[in-house]
Structures are given as structure tokens and as C-alpha cells.
């Protein structure tokens, strides 16, 4: 069994973050006889999962849904996040392509370049 401070230190986060996760239902923690939070191995693993899901971009409501007992509900949330991330990757790749062209462009001014103009029209 671990205290909230020990778990927070192990995960590299503040104790108030763990309290917030518990408050919003993303984390379930037992209390000891004195009412103090007591983290067993299962609670620690759940906290690690919440942290990882947050770090890959899920909001707390999405984390809670992704950890739902019904696998189909969890999968729907994760699939939606994957689609959103893939869209972001696509936009980032377009930005890189455009910016790389502007670096390599032989035209003195970008508005003189037909390729730059084509990129601008895509926005």
C-alpha cells in the first residue's frame, strides 16, 4: 500500500492531480480506517493508465470513457481520438510540405510562386 504522496512522486505528478482524477471518476482509490487514500497495486496501475492516456492526448472525460467496463464504449472513444490525431498529423504534414517549399522556393516573393499560391488556396 502506498500513500498519495508516494504515488504522486512515483508518477512524477502532484498529489492534487490524483485527487482531481478521483473526484472526476477517472481513478478509484480505497480509504484506510482514518480516511486516508491508500493505493494498492491495482490503484497504482489505474493511475499509470490515466497518466498515459492523458499524455497521449485524451481529456479526462475521454479517459473515464476509455476506461469504462464496456469495451465497446472504450473502443469508440479511442477510435475517435485516433481519427482526430490522424487528422492533426495530416495537417502537420501539409504545413511541413508548405514550409519546406517556402524555404526551397526559387521565387523572391512567395506571392509570385504558383506552387505557393496553390498551397494557400488549399487552406
Mean pLDDT: 90
**CATH topology descriptor of the largest domain:** Multidrug-efflux Transporter Regulator, Chain: A, Domain 2
Quote the distance from N terminus to C terminus. Answer: 54 Å
Q: Could you give a short account of the major beta sheet?
A: 2 strands, antiparallel
Count of helix runs:
6
Highest CATH level, the class of the largest domain: Mainly Alpha
Which structural class is indicated by helix and strand composition? mainly alpha
Strand order of the largest sheet: 1-2
Give me some keywords for this one.
single chain; 123 residues; mainly alpha; Multidrug-efflux Transporter Regulator, Chain: A, Domain 2; 2 domains; two-stranded antiparallel ribbon; 6 helices; 67% helix; 3% strand
Topology:
Blueprint: H1 4-11, H2 15-23, E1 30-31, E2 37-38, H3 41-55, H4 60-66, H5 71-104, H6 114-122
Antiparallel strand pairs: 1-2
Notes on the structure:
It is a single chain. The chain is built from 6 helices and 2 strands, in the order ααββαααα. The chain has 123 residues and is mainly alpha-helical. The model has no long low-confidence stretch (mean pLDDT 90). The chain folds into 2 domains: 1-57, Orthogonal Bundle (Multidrug-efflux Transporter Regulator, Chain: A, Domain 2), CATH 1.10.1660.10; 68-123. The termini are far apart. It has helices at 4-11, 15-23, 41-55, 60-66, 71-104, 114-122, and strands at 30-31, 37-38. A hairpin with a 5-residue loop joins β1 and β2. It is elongated, with a radius of gyration of 23 Å. The chain has a two-stranded antiparallel ribbon. It is 67% helix and 3% strand. The longest helix has 34 residues, at 71-104.
Amino acid at each position: 500500500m502506498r500513500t498519495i504522496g508516494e504515488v504522486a512522486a512515483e508518477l512524477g505528478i502532484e498529489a492534487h492531480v490524483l485527487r482531481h482524477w478521483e473526484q472526476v471518476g477517472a481513478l478509484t482509490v480505497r480509504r484506510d480506517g482514518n480516511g486516508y487514500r491508500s493505493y494498492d497495486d491495482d490503484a497504482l496501475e489505474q493511475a499509470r493508465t490515466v497518466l498515459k492516456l492523458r499524455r497521449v492526448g485524451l481529456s479526462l472525460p475521454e479517459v473515464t470513457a476509455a476506461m469504462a467496463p464496456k469495451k465497446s464504449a472504450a473502443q469508440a472513444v479511442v477510435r475517435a481520438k485516433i481519427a482526430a490525431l490522424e487528422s492533426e498529423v495530416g495537417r502537420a504534414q501539409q504545413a511541413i510540405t508548405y514550409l519546406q517549399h517556402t524555404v526551397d522556393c526559387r521565387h523572391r516573393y512567395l506571392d509570385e510562386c504558383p506552387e505557393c499560391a496553390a498551397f494557400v488556396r488549399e487552406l
